[in-house]
Structure formats: C-alpha cells, structure tokens
Amino acid sequence: MAPVEQDALAVREQLFHERVRECIICALLFASLYILCHFIITHFKKHTDFTAVHDDEDAAVNRIALGLCTFTLAVALGAVLLLPFSIISNEVLLSFPQNYYIQWLNGSLIHGLWNLVFLFSNMSLVFLMPFAYFFTESEGFAGSKKGIMARVYETSVVLLLLTLLVLGMVWVASAIVGNDAASRQSLYDLWEYYLPYLYSCISLFGVLLLLLCTPFGLSTMFTVTGKLLVKPRLLEDLDEQLSCTRFEEAAVSHRIHSGKASCWLNLDMEMLREQFFAIRSKRRKLELRHRASPWQRNLGYPLAMLGLLALTGISVLIVCFHVLELLLDDAAMPRGIQDASLGQVSFSIFGSFGAALQVVLIFYLMLSSVVGFYSSPLFTRLLPERQDTPLTKIIGNCVSLLVLSSALPVFSRTLGITRFDLLGDFGRFNWLGNFYIVFLYNMGFAGLTTLCLVKRVSWAVQAELIRAFGLHKLPLPVTRRRTRSKPC
To answer: Most buried among 23, 59, 62, 77, by the most CB within 10 A?
Structure first.
C-alpha cells in the first residue's frame, strides 16, 4: 500500500474513532439527564394516574406520555447546561492545551451538542408534546376497536391536521413578511425554511417571556430569601417578644377552653381560634429566630442579600455596557458562527474569572426566570405539587420549561452576558440581525431590572427602619367627617 493511501486510511480511521467517541459521550450525557429528569417527574407525578386498578389502557397511555415528558425535560435541562458547558470547555482547553486526557473535548463535540439540542427542541415542541397531550385525551374513533392503537391513530390524525394548520399559518406569515422572489422560492423548502422559521418565532416568544419573568423573578428571590433565612432586626429584644407572645397564646387558649357554648359565643370562638392560630404561628417564627446562632442571624442573611444585589447589579452593568457596544460596534450583534473556535481565546476579558462569572450569571438569570414564571399570576396554576400533579399539568410544565431553557443561549448572547457566539442553527434566527429589536430588548431588560431592584431594596429598607423604631405600632390617623343631624 502506498504511503499516501496509508495516510488517508489513518485519517479516515481517526475520524471514525472520533465520531464514535462523540456519539458515546452524547449518549451518556443524555442518559444521565434522562435518569435525573425521571426522578424529578416521579417526585411530582400523581400516582393514581399510573395505576392499573381502574383501567390498564389509561395507565399504559399515561406511562407513554410520561416518557415523552421525561425526554422533553431532559432536553430542557440540556439546553440550560449547553452554554455553561461550552464556556467551561473553552477555558479548560485554554488552560490545558496539550493534555491527552481532554482531547475528546473539542469543537466538533460542542458543535454536535448544540445541533442535537436544537433538533430535539424542535421535535419536542412541534411533535412530542402535542402528541403526548392529544394521546392522553384521545379515546379512539367512533366505531373502531378500543385499544392503544386506536388512540394512536386518532392522535396521529389530529396532530397531522394541527401540523398542516400551523404550517399554513407560517406560510402565510412568511409570504406577507417577505414578498421578494427569494422568499417565495424558500416557501417550498420545508426543512431548511419552515422549521427554522417556526422555531425562530418560538424562540422570540421564549426570549420575550424571559424578559418579562426575569426581573419579576429577581424581585421575588429577595422576598423568598428573606422568608427562608433568619433576618436580623435592629433595636429588637427577642426574649421580650417571645415571652409576650407565649403569655398571649396561653391567655387566648385559656379563654377558648373555659368558654361556654351559646349562640352568641360561637362567633367569638371562631374569632378566638383564628387569633390563636395566628399567635401560634408568630410564636414558632420567634422561636426559630431565637434558636438561630448569632452567625446565622447576623451574617447569613446579609451575605445572601449582598450576593443577590451583587449578581443583579453586575447583570445590569453588563447589559448597559452591551448597549454602548451596540451603538458603537456592529460586531456586538448576536450572530451565529459555523465553526467552533474553542481553545483559542477566552470569551471574557477577565480570563477564567470572567468566564466563571458568566456561568454563574447564566444560572442565576435562569433560576430567577423560573421563579418569576411560577410567581406570575398567569402561570401560578402550573406550579407542580409533590405527589399530586396530574399528567396534563406535567405536560404544561415541560413545554414551559423547554421554551424558557431553549431561549436561554439566545437570551444570554442578546444581552451580552457572554461573548460565546451561537453555534448550530441557533444563530439562524431572523430577528437576531435586527438592530432595533436587540437594542430595545437590552434597554427593556436594564430598565425593568433596575426598577424592580430599586423598589424591592427601598421598600425593604423602609420596612426595616419603621419596624426598628417602632413606628408600625403607632395608631393610624382617623379622619373625622361631619355629618349633618337630621331634624326630628
């Protein structure tokens, strides 16, 4: 065999082994995420929906739908970890460029992961989740033989009609937006135009949802932190308050047990019981704060609040700096690239520290967006409950989390949280090249986050000062109105 043929054969073998290695790594990563998501959904699902006591067919249908939900949630979790994993991989390759044990961590693997997440996100949103919902609601066509296959046939027909309806709406929208010859020619390309355009609309909706939920979630996280941690109080004597609360609870309890039944006393007894439960709750909170150590009471809460303030303030500063970059440099626009240039240059001007800060900010913004999503009045009903969440609510949660998580890479790149360019088909979204949309999006995020932060901090400081100086115990002013006396 000639040396040239041997070299070509060696190159083909190397490419084959690299491809097999990437497939194995992707399969292991997704299997790990699937197992984790299975335990998460099992923790919240309603067990009566999956027992075969009443109807074995319904239980089997619910298990199939649950598997599709687990797959979708695993894709959502993969979309959340996609950008941080890419940033960390780039920094590892920069720190250890010649290390033999990390040669598997290359641009081809990262690019493949981005393409898989994009593909699975499209498949879950367009096919799997609608199929799971229609599958649980189907009963089979009238006159057909009952069974799982009858439900599959009905679900497939309904899903096909829905797909045609959505594709028709996308066709009309794209024909109205682009009226040139090239746009009309691309209307006949399903895979290269329809699905990216449809997912671009879904991604735009997800990014807008992140814009609305993240500032609200940042404000909610301050409140949740104050409830979970023991807050220090200025000029406060816990022993005296606890003693007074215990005496008040004992007095109300004595009045309840010593009262005599009568038609007038029943109303008083109800009021006394409500007062007793309120005093008991207050007493338990005071005991919890009294048992807390001075370090926990005087150091834990301030550090947590300072951490939230620091992360929120850094996010706003980065977005404001990105707004200036958009005005001065066209390269700041969130455009995608086709070749992953990993291990060549850091994506932060501060090196590894800046990359670590970017990862922390991405997780922080995602957590705040999820908190804001479930705290908003429109989506509060979707909040899952432990061991009591029906399957339809699980499907709704999976779809919502997938929309939020799949928009996270675009959200982070649009706000300038990271300079890591969008890989795969994430950079093909049409609206990413629109300067006005990107600019107004950054301005809206900075304005809403600053407003929520100022209101939350100012109200918290004002409440603590009022409580510290005892102003909350002062009686409210009563306005007197003069009433004319009626003549006898």
So the answer is: 62
Q: Give just the sign of the alpha carbon dihedral 311, 312, 317, 323.
A: positive
Query: CA-CA distance, 162 to 445, in Å (whole number)?
Result: 35
Which tokens hold the place of 387? 């061991």
Structure tokens at 306: 């300072």
Beta bridge partners of 336: 422
Kindly compute the dihedral angle of the four CA atoms of residues 4, 9, 12, 14, in this order, to the nearest 10 degrees: -100
Scanning the structure block, which residue is given the tokens 């044990």?
A: 101
Q: Check: CB of residue 355 under 8 Å from CB of residue 89.
A: no
**Model-level pTM?**
0.79
Between the two ends of the chain, the Cα-to-Cα distance in Å is 126
- 8 vs 20, 33, 103, 126, CA distance in Å? 18, 38, 21, 42
Q: Say how far apart CA 76 and CA 71 lie, in whole Å.
A: 9
- Residues 28-66 as b/e (b if ≥16 CB within 10 A, e otherwise) read ebbeebbeebbeebeeebbeebbeeeeeebbeebbebbb
- What's the residue count for the chain? 488
Question: Letter for the amino acid at 311?
Answer: L
Rounded Cα distance between 267 and 316, Å, is: 54
Q: Which two tokens stand for residue 95?
A: 């720190």
The residue assigned the tokens 């641009």 is: 107
94 within 8 A of 424, measured Cβ to Cβ:
no
pLDDT tens per residue, the chain (488 residues)?
566 666 676 778 778 878 888 889 989 999 999 999 999 998 888 776 666 545 677 788 888 889 999 999 999 999 999 989 988 888 888 888 777 778 788 888 888 888 888 888 888 888 889 988 888 888 777 767 777 888 888 888 888 888 888 777 767 766 676 555 555 555 455 555 556 566 666 777 788 888 888 887 877 777 777 666 666 665 555 666 777 777 777 777 777 777 654 444 454 667 777 777 787 777 777 766 666 666 666 677 778 888 888 888 898 899 999 888 888 877 778 765 545 567 777 878 888 888 899 999 999 989 988 888 888 888 888 888 888 888 888 999 999 999 888 888 888 888 888 888 777 777 666 667 778 888 888 898 888 888 877 776 666 666 655 655 555 555 555 444 444 444 43
Copy the structure tokens of residue 292.
């807390």
Compute the distance between CA of residue 91 and CA of residue 176 in angstroms, rounded to an integer. 45
Q: Which residues contact 41 (CB under 8 A, 6 or more apart)?
A: 66, 69, 70, 73, 394
Residue with tokens 């039944």: 261
> How far is 234 from 301, CA to CA, in rounded Å?
13
- Give the closest residue to 305 by CA, choosing from 225, 359, 383, 239: 225
